[in-house]
Amino acid sequence: MALKITVIGTGYLGATHAAAMAELGFEVLGLDVVPEKIEMLGRGEVPMFEPGLEDLLRKHVAGIEGSTGRLRFTMDWAEVAEFGDVHFVCVNTPQKHGEYACDMSYVDAAVESLAKHLSRPCLVVGKSTVPVGSADRLAARLLELAPGGAEVELAWNPEFLREGFAVQDTLHPDRIVVGVRSERAEKLLREVYATPVAAGSPFVVTDFPTAELVKTSANSFLATKISFINAMAEVCEAAGGDVAKLAEAIGHDDRIGKKFLRAGIGFGGGCLPKDIRAFMARAGELGADQALTFLREIDSINMRQRGQMVELAREALGGGPFLGKRVAVLGATFKPDSDDVRDSPALNVAGQIHLQGGQVTVYDPKGMTNARRLFPTLGYADTAIEAVRGADVVLHLTEWREFRELDPRELGEVAATRLILDGRNALDPELWRGAGWTYRAMGRPTA
Ligand code: UDX
């Protein structure tokens, strides 16, 4: 009989994982503690913007006309425990307020709420990004709480999906990593992932700590690449070099690769910044903090980029205070193809200028609702052209395709000054300069 799967937590990770498991042919039951989320998902609506996710949900959510009916949602822990052979824990692990460490309370609460009802054999699989050592601790907790005793086992299976590509990354992962303690756990996970593995996704079997570390070290490496190129941008700026050319040229070396070498205002979002901080905090607890001191520099280079963008804007406007200056901001989300504004460099830059007296107007294709909620005092416009109307400077801070496709001539007619600062090195300088704009980007020559 086909395995029955449950997914606990229905954020970016869980909602996508649940829909993907249904797409792979399993019966799936998703659980969340927020009633509004469960109601929306039950109607086949996604509480966030993620390309392709709503279509996938609607294809499987029970009760939707023409759906497979394989996917349902509930708030009932006992129902989930009774239903599942494999339970995926997909709740978030945010940064603790005022600390580097991550907040494990959601994971702990999820495992404990579930464990009390687990009276039949099953596998609980952690997917959340956690400090190394958590799986070991949670396995002991399961054993302590679950009425099913040793028949209730834990495994760790980190998730590497990127927002904006969540569906594709979940259905066709680069690799599947599983931390297991028994052949039975490995066998169950091989069954779950049989389809992507048959299609070529590598399946890496390892122990708990290694599985946990694969995730945090992968994110640390990605963050390092971005901060490395941003450091090179600073040097280019000082020496009169062009960081975009430099990235292209070093990227031709296969050992370095072209990806994640786009200089700009740096990384944000709900993962990279908090994951590298939590990793440092955990290394400290383990007495290995020396090994990760470089991550402190990666973090500070990243945060410095935001301030440098503000200074670039100030300088471009002739120096001095922002008071009375009209600043158009294109982009609010931390990356394109997402509505996520968590730790968004774009909103941070917009906020700094606003707090220094600038009259800021923000436009983003999908992030307006979340941005307004997080930063209600900023000005907002419904279109890029409205944001740019009357602006003394335009800041391009999230590299949406829509912004690359803007017509600089049309925008030039409504802007007060044709001055654009590209905080993502993603626009075509020649196009903008050709339309009479002064184009500036971090780490690139002025003209
Ligand atoms: C990241 C990891 O990529 C993913 O594997 C993990 O599961 C979760 O964290 P995500 O947070 O969706 O995914 O974003 P990602 O695509 O990695 O981008 C992170 C940030 O880096 C964005 O703000 C992006 O704009 C920035 N970035 C990315 C750069 O500044 N330069 C680059 O070259 C690439």
TrEMBL record:
Entry-linked InterPro entries: 6-PGluconate_DH-like_C_sf (IPR008927), NAD(P)-bd_dom_sf (IPR036291), UDP-Glc/GDP-Man (IPR017476), UDP-Glc/GDP-Man_DH_C (IPR014027), UDP-Glc/GDP-Man_DH_C_sf (IPR036220), UDP-Glc/GDP-Man_DH_dimer (IPR014026), UDP-Glc/GDP-Man_DH_N (IPR001732), UDPglc_DH_bac (IPR028357)
Keyword set includes Nucleotide-binding: no
Keywords for the protein's UniProt record, in alphabetical order: NAD, Oxidoreductase
Pfam family, one: UDPG_MGDP_dh
Pathway recorded for this protein: Nucleotide-sugar biosynthesis; UDP-alpha-D-glucuronate biosynthesis; UDP-alpha-D-glucuronate from UDP-alpha-D-glucose: step 1/1
Class of this enzyme: oxidoreductase
Record-annotated UDP-glucose/GDP-mannose dehydrogenase C-terminal domain positions: 328-429
Reactions accelerated catalytically: UDP-alpha-D-glucose + 2 NAD(+) + H2O = UDP-alpha-D-glucuronate + 2 NADH + 3 H(+)
Family note: Belongs to the UDP-glucose/GDP-mannose dehydrogenase family.
Protein name according to UniProt: UDP-glucose 6-dehydrogenase
